[in-house]
Design brief:
heterodimer, A: mainly alpha, 5 helices, elongated, B: mainly alpha, globular
Amino acid sequence: METMPRIVKIGGALGFVGGIISIVCLAVFFEAGEQALMVMGAYMLIAVMFFALAGGFARDGRWSWNILLLMTFLTVGVVGCFVVLDAVDLYAGTMLAVVGALIVISLIAPSSKTWTNRMRL
Amino acid sequence: MKVSKDRSIAFAWTGMLGVAVFIIAWLCADAIDTAWQFGVNTLSEFGISDTDASLYFNYGCCLIAGLLVAVFGVGRAACGKNVGHTAGGIFLFLGGVALILVGFFTMDDDVAHKTVAASAALFILLSMIAIAAGNWTADRKIFAGVGIVFIFVLIAMAIAYDLAELEAYGIILAMIWLLLESMNMILSSRKG
């Protein structure tokens, strides 16, 4: 069985880190009130998107490199959206955007592109 | 249309120059008209200012910057590698023309001003979408991705902010995007 390149492992791990940060931020910034549902929804959606990205890096995943990169940009876009809509805290949003940017960097490595395109179902 | 490498780089520089002219004219107008506040007053209010700020806005931000953006749009369409680039270039050209008209139809002419200002914003947003699609197809994925993020943020701003804030932050985002797109054109032409 072909060994997974380290950069792919890092990309997957960053996806999990992004998801976990989002869940932790949900607990930290949650306040019962009129906006509670939007705040909860925003952090949960971001967490789901980051965990999906982590899954995308897995062996025999369903996403090709193109889709994985597009989803990463969409995730960062959604984070930016919710920061502007004031559903996500600015510092938390910045942290999540940085994690997203690191995932993009891990994806543009040549070994990452080759591996994610080859080891697909 | 086949455009030489040098001409493509020249077109890209007009985009950068347009952004530089807009920023300088904006800063000059802001320095002259001290009553104007970022995020509180709309940029168009410079156009009807009693001070010389109106000259800087109408001629610098609208006429000269709009002209340079329109020329950049023509270049983007001519140097495009696919339909997305061509469509984006045409939208950018129309956005530049609408920006020029903003300088002529000031806030005194309410209906015409609102129409051309909204058209400029809409055409530039459309060009961002089209060029992002074009960049994705042309394998300029990072530039396309950054464009996608900007589009998301702009749409969220349109929902969350009032007009003055949306205009100010939206123009800053659009200028960053124009700089990136100019850089993309220069890098693409070097790559061949």
